[in-house]
Amino acid sequence: MTPDLTTTLATFEERIAQELHSDVAFIAAIAGELVGAGGKRLRPTLSFLAAEMVGADDDSAMGVALAVELLHSASLLHDDLIDDASTRRGAAAAFRRYGNVVSVMSGDFMLARVLGLLARARKDDFTQLMSATAVAICEGEVLQFQMATLETWSTDTYRQVIEGKTAALFAAALEGVAIVAGAPDEQRLALREFGMAYGRAFQMRDDYLDLLGDAATLGKPIGGDLREGKATLPVLSLIEDGLAEPVAILRRHAADEGDVARMVELVREFGGDARTRSAIHAEVGLALESLTAFRRTPARTALADLAAAEADRIA
Q1: End-to-end alpha carbon distance in the chain
Q2: Containing domain of residue 217, as a range?
Q3: pTM of this prediction exceeds 0.90
């Protein structure tokens, strides 16, 4: 991380705390916990690197980064409730401590802050992008539930899910900066393509590790997606091959003792792990190819390194 980016991210932390300020104690508490937990701030990092590449001014790039991160944070509060999650970033999920109403309304509070940022940006194209991104997130989450409910398991549907729930926000963090900077269409499209490919690779890798990773390294038991009835890429490749046992395990949400371990065996035996790694490498390749629209700079190298790391983590 460059000194300039470190400084910019420190300023971002100050600004997001300001955006999340509320005189209502419960909202302030939830917002404070989200700011304190921080996370990797990956999406803001994408925005600030894109700003270096297209020459966006600091205030405009900051507005994009804040809007995208607040939309992401709001979706996390809602997702935890939908998924009946126990924890978020090592602490009890907000709805478990404050209740469903407070958690949902705090998420809505963040969405309202996003509207304020969009009004201040005064860029119709950016507003339309953020609207489309919010729609994509909702559709991705509902499609994931629909796929499980109707058992319409397929890799094509899975890609639609991860494009909506994950990749769309990555793309918005990058394309939004190109919009506010008035960058050429070629650069705007290239940043969007990078964000979508990188976002798909990111989610595929996350899903791969959820089943095939090390519990001690992850800090949680493996097989969380299976227990929620979510069909991810390593399992879907087996289902599409016509294997019955993975379907049975998925239908009962891996409720029987040994189900997760058995699924791991099946995935490794029938190549679901190798096919997922191949898919991740392909997405990383697409992401890197999109960056050829830009001259070589430290910012472009940093974006390339972020994408390449997704393949390295499952090598």
Answers
A1: 23
A2: 184-315
A3: yes
